[in-house]
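User: Quick sanity check before I run a bigger batch. Here is a single chain. Can you write out its predicted 3D structure?
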Amino acid sequence: MMDFRALRHFVALAEELHFGRAAQKLGMTQPPLSQSIKRLEKQLGVRLVERSSRSVSLTLSGATFAIEARRLLQQLEFIERRVKQTAAGEVATLTVGLISPALYRILPRTLDLLRARMPQLEVRLVELPSEEQIKLLRFGRLDLAMISPTPIDLRGLAVRPVERGSTVLAIPADWPFANRTELHLAELKDYPFVLIPFERNPASRSAFFNACFNAGFTPKVVQEATQTNTRLNFVSAGLGAAIVTATARYTQYHGVRFLSIVDQRDEALKWELSIVWQPQGVSRALRTLIECFGKASGDLEALPVRILPER
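Assistant: Done. Predicted structure follows.
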């Protein structure tokens, strides 16, 4: 395994091109520095430095290695800084995954509360399907995920619902019943639909198909899209109707009307948004964000956090 001290020694020499100055910069004497560089060359099996009595220069391999070594050391410094910040509860950045419905109401409310409590904290938002979020969360690439309930393995993770509601129909504004406030699904039996792909959310897709079957027809699917905003753009273009969360009413899409579904009494057409995180080693910043979600969620604030068992 490569010694990070040797990398620092080599980078210092590459910058100074002088053993004496590099050793002084590192706070060491010249002989140990020379030996460190020789060990590194032996480990790599290439000559990194050309030495003479008057000068030091980098070989082509040495110049290439210097670039990569600097990048590696910068990454190491970032990791060390992040670990220390986490231990002190001073993480400067949180990375949060989300699906489109989170943007309509709960997330803006939460971020307003968070800014009031931790104004220096930066939150990076990444819009991804629920399944991809959980993968990145387990790999440590996300601090928190915002997902819809789908058949995802959440074992060992902390889960908390933050928003629940009904779904609505988004239809093109030039359709005959666009000026109404509600309609029965059966009224759409001759109209096209834009739906989420089955593999992305089989539970939601199946629930909608079942509701249509109960209404006496099979929906005609002309287009599929994973993200809610994409489906709304297709609706705006007149391609078909889409089932979206009721909070999508907060958006301002040209040429789109939102109608309540009379058949909504079926619980299968309800939706839920949950936040998910790794319960071990929660930083002060992440804990504060979770608390802000709780406050922003209103009537869901009292719902307990569930940590799903590993087995």
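The chain has a mean pLDDT of 85.

User: Great, the batch can go ahead then.
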